């Protein structure tokens, strides 16, 4: 049955996820894109389970902190000429009311604010029996369980900014098989996140690494993309063409990995003509220790992500 989705803390990521969800409501993926035969069923494949069509929300509430953000979001979501469902945009003073009126809650605030929001007076009652999906880095399910009533189901997700154009990668925490609500919640999660790109379930113990690779990953990839374009500019390419060439080349290489399942090293070797120019570039990268630098970047990000939720202020009063 269609339901109301509340996005608590609708900033960069809330907007990215909601934009993707709304776009899917306006123009659902053609069935073949998620068909078991044509969707990547290689080891690189996304979750291909279809969710029941009525597992999608049809009403939306978002909350933000500042009045200027309220105005900005109203323009973003409701100036679509009456197309699609209405998105109500409210200020943080209406967090509890918004949760009380909704069925599924997407928690998108900063990790440091989670306890404050979830322990606000009246929030516990508002969350009774509901599904809370957190996208917060470093904030564990067991931490959130301390802040919500026992009847509230807590799920972790780690989407990324390309969700906005439905090219995202989302990892969802594994659901307990024994919970009778699991099939329904699984349908809701798949219906929300599958159309935003790719989506898979993983054990929560991997979430800090997942945060580094797919949550932060777009930033790292864009830095490399920018550097490739800079090199092109250095060698005389116009800036916009250099960016286009680098972006499409990265997308093409990534798609080959996803669609063929061939190891990236083998694809790299297939570009590297003996005595050719690619090996000259690869050796320059190896001299710069790019591989260990990138791997260490993921390691450092993972370790930092693990600490993010720990700095949350813990209000002492739970109503
Ligand atoms: N950015 C990314 O690429 C990713 C982020 N994440 C996670 O997503 C979460 C949000 O990150 P991001 O979107 O970048 O952060 P933003 O700062 O862009 O968004 C946070 C939002 O929370 C709002 N807010 C602040 N206080 C309150 C309150 N008391 N009640 C309701 N809303 C409030 C802010 O409103 P206002 O704008 O008015 O201040 C803002 O819109 C983080 O937990 C992060 O770990 C996960 C994956 C990727
Ligand atoms: O930088 C951050 O903390 C968030 C989490 C993943 C991406 N952005």
Automatic annotation (TrEMBL):
NADP(+) binds at residues 8-13. It catalyses: L-proline + NADP(+) = (S)-1-pyrroline-5-carboxylate + NADPH + 2 H(+). One of its GO terms (biological process) is L-proline biosynthetic process. Residues 58-138 form the Pyrroline-5-carboxylate reductase catalytic N-terminal domain. The keyword Oxidoreductase applies. It comes from the Eukaryota. Pathway: Amino-acid biosynthesis; L-proline biosynthesis; L-proline from L-glutamate 5-semialdehyde: step 1/1. It holds the Pfam family P5CR_dimer. Residues 26-48 are annotated as: Disordered. Keywords: Amino-acid biosynthesis, NADP, Oxidoreductase, Proline biosynthesis. PANTHER family: PYRROLINE-5-CARBOXYLATE REDUCTASE, PYRROLINE-5-CARBOXYLATE REDUCTASE 3. This is Pyrroline-5-carboxylate reductase. It comes from Leucosporidium creatinivorum. The lineage of its organism: Eukaryota, Fungi, Dikarya, Basidiomycota, Pucciniomycotina.
